[in-house]
Amino acid sequence: MYEELYEEGKSGAEAVDRLCRILALLRSRDGCPWDQAQTHESLRACMIEEAYEAVDAIEKEDWEHLEEELGDVLLQVVFHAGLGQEAGRFDLAGVANRECEKMIRRHPHVFDEKQGTFSANYTESVDKVLEKWENVKRKERRGTQTASMEELPRSLPALTRSCKVQKKAADVGFDWDRVEEAFGKLEEETRELLEIYRSQDREHIKEEVGDLLFAAVNIARFLDVDPEDALNFASQKFIRRFRFIEETAAAQGKNLEEMTLTEMDRLWEQAKTEETHR
């Protein structure tokens, strides 16, 4: 039964078709109760999770795992396309063709011979490509810059979304001239948060913390640093140094819960020193 579904696709198109047929079976009356119950809304978390797991595999350069995770991402695309087809809204062919049309439209330097050629300098060429890409996107939206900010998905990581918001404002000239001014804003927001904390104005602490983080993202943007990558790097560094504290304490026969902050901080500084001399 279903013997044809056990056969591997010999091409990308055949493999994707196989996946579509498997999913259609799972959604049918003879299929799986869980798959039958899914909706676009119920699958939102899965889409986000699978995308993050694929990115994690890329960061770890775990290529075998990346193949698996990309398959999970593809499953989500096929699943949503299947739901769209069932509702008579769209199907996988429409999804793929719409993306093809968008890629052709946003790459006039490739598909439109009238656009001319690019500089031999790779960096300049990339910059021009990005400029053309953004110009085409603006023409597609035909809306205000505020509307383009509001279109940014709220499901994006907060640091990434805030950086994109700032870039859109900068595109129309609403930006600092120098990074030193951005540092000044960070200092201003730090003072304001401290004042709110001291006044015990709990209602506005969340707002001020947000302003402080937004100002920090602004500096990262000026320095051409991805704030999401920077914070993940800091988190990993913290984990690495805390592991040193835990392992060193255990080697000394000590329990972290019984140690003073001063004792742990001394091990923290030792971890930093050892990292510096590696």
Write the layout of secondary structure elements.
Blueprint: H1 12-27, H2 33-37, H3 44-59, H4 63-86, H5 92-105, H6 108-111, H7 122-141, H8 145-150, H9 158-171, H10 179-198, H11 202-222, H12 227-251, H13 261-276
- Summed over residues and divided by their number, the pLDDT gives a mean of 90
Order of helices and strands: HHHHHHHHHHHHH
Q: What's the overall geometry? A: extended
In whole angstroms, the N-to-C terminal distance is: 60 Å
- The share of residues in extended strands comes to under 5%
Report on the structure:
- The chain has 278 residues and is mainly α.
- The protein has helices at residues 12-27, 33-37, 44-59, 63-86, 92-105, 108-111, 122-141, 145-150, 158-171, 179-198, 202-222, 227-251, 261-276.
- It is built from 13 helices and no strands.
- Helix 3 (44-59) runs antiparallel to helix 4 (63-86).
- 7% of the residues are buried.
Name the descriptors.
278 residues, mainly alpha, 13 helices
Offer a concise description of the structure.
With 278 residues, this protein is mainly alpha-helical.
